[in-house]
Amino acid sequence: MTDTRAGSPSATAEKPFEITFPRGREEDRDQDEEFCEVALHGETRRIRFHDYHELYAIPGLYEQLFYEKLKCDSPHTIATLLDEQLDDDAAADLRVLDVGAGNGMVGEELDRMGAEHIVGVDIIEEAAEAAQRDRPGVYDDYFVVDLTDVLWGPMAEPLRDPGYFRRVQVDPELRTIVWPNGFDLDPDVLHGNYEPAPSPDSIARQAPN
Question: How far apart are the C-alpha atoms of 26 and 33, rounded to whole Å?
């Protein structure tokens, strides 16, 4: 398999960013509090690691922070593990739903493997914009949708099992995703034409105390 690590020209900034990390022990900070400081346009900007919308908005920053500085290599690792389980040329038959697709790094690896059809899903608008900006053509479709608001009700209950969830398929005629029990996502919601009806859980969360 071709080695398609994060340092490809499409995924890097024109010049490396100046990134610094806070002093002190990492275990003293909660995961959501971890941050770095980045020099941008003559100013120092503090960005938390989980502020993905900010990271994706700056071309090349996500790759440099996580894959060069923090030595994360999960997209390549995932693709390598998958490739080891496939027969020769089997990747050409893959139809992939990339949930939490982000800026397309896993999708890019799968595309290089030869996956036939790749659909990306993420909750963050900036992720979809970054995937199109940095890796155009990798995804056949890319949807911005909060799956927690659409995966509810009796038919959706089996999808909470990871093994069953992985049985998802893409229906190219309906332009949506479907599961063996007939559960699917409304194409209008998936394509962003309408907001999904709120789930009981989300209604309860929004109710005043």
Answer: 10
